[in-house]
Amino acid sequence: MSLEYVGLKEINGPLIALDGVKDTAFEEMVDIALDDGTHRTGRVIQIEGEKAIIQVFEGTQSISLTNTHTHFQGRPMEIALSKEVLGRIFDGVGRPIDGLGEIFPEQRRDINGNPINPVSRIYPRNYIRTGISSIDALMTLIRGQKLPIFSGSGMPHNELAVQIVRQSQIAAEEGSEFAIVFAAMGVKNDVADYFRRSFEESGVLQRVVMFLNLSNDPIIERILTPRCALTVAEYLAFEKDMHILVVMTDMTSYAEALREFSSSKGEIPGRKGFPGYLYSDLASLYERAGMIKGRKGSVTQIPVLTMPNDDITHPIPDLTGYITEGQIVLDRNLDQTGIYPPVGILPSLSRLMKDGIGEGYTRGDHSAVSNQLFASYAKVQDARSLASVIGEEELSAVDKKYLEFGRKFEKFFVGQSANENRAIDYTLDLGWKLLSLLPKEELDRVDSKLLDKYYKPESAEDLKGE
Q1: Domains in the chain and their CATH numbers?
Q2: In what residue span(s) does the ATP synthase A/B type C-terminal domain sit (predicted)?
Q3: Rounded to an integer, what distance in angstroms lies between the CA atom of residue 434 and that of residue 439?
């Protein structure tokens, strides 16, 4: 039996309250008919006995306490799913905004999803190539992994996200398809246009599903956007056997919307005003990545978040770091020197890369090159610290070699064009070329067989003059 309730008990910001409500459920969708004949959509966010608190998507302006008709739909929010979603652009709650009409669904699915049973998970193997040397070689993205990008205000994280979407590929496998789900939350109109234009001009839009939530859209839509995106990703991965990369930017906008939403409900705030359940809420999104036994597809996540005041201990990056399997940290000092992408090598890591690289995946020497580049670049920082105290002229010959290596490494390996798509073999060969700038005895993370094969000081000659 479907009941319709007339009138409201109270209106508080974006929330409305009804009394005498029976048999409703948390997250149930609500249709709200105003006295002028227009309709709005809401969602039950709190139940106290027979009192229901409803979040109105479009806001509560012009809603009457006496003449509003509220109809509970008896179902949670669902999104229409079919393979037709590829190449389409949606708003934050899954409504088409590209002028191509509605989706004809094969099925509809609850956007809140279900956590993947840990017993049915498969350990992630194999990698996704981004064409960006610093990521592919040193913090490799593995299928089924959660690898966030920690950025800061004004840094080129949007450009990096676009480049990853444009260039990402998987190794050619029989019957495997690759697609990207891109979710932008709280972005300005010009940034949304940049994303859309970049994907259209590069010709990758046909393998991308875009969700765009603008900064002037309701905050409730911002909270639903990543859930809609992940539901589409799960459908394509586990129903259509595709490998899906989900890029979500900016998770800071999402968390701030969650804080505003929590405050409007009168909940007791936690660290920096964020709700105490921020950790579990983020985990409910991040843990929807992975691979499942008996299914060929995978869901891989790259959440992008801007750290307020570049503070990596802020609750959003802090909690994200606990849940995810590594991070890519953008460095403001590198950015200010004009290096793109300004990936900070030492604070970045991929905890799963050791099992998705090497023989059969990338190349047999990948692990050794990665370890040696990390170790050598760490010594560069020591040499720079010493040079700042005693001056570069007073350094030993080896320390001067490290300074030269550091400059070339940042310029040629970390730095690359926004349109440059590097093959993994090119990246690893470039790593060996840079390591050949250093004395052979300094390369203590590589065994002698690999050194004999790849260490060639003459190959680094073309780097010395630049």
Answers
A1: 2-75 (2.40.30.20), 77-353 (3.40.50.12240), 363-463 (1.10.1140)
A2: 355-455
A3: 11
Q: Please give the pLDDT value at position 175.
A: 55
Asked whether the beta carbons of 113 and 238 are under 8 A apart, the reply is: no
pLDDT band for 247, please (50, 70, 90 cuts). Answer: very high
Residue 160 has pLDDT above 70, yes or no: yes
Span 203-236, pLDDT tens digits: 999 999 999 999 998 888 899 999 999 999 999 9
Q: Cα dihedral sign for 24, 25, 31, 34? A: positive
Paired strand residues for 47:
52
CA distances from 142 to 36, 163, 332, 362, 439 (A): 53, 17, 26, 11, 33
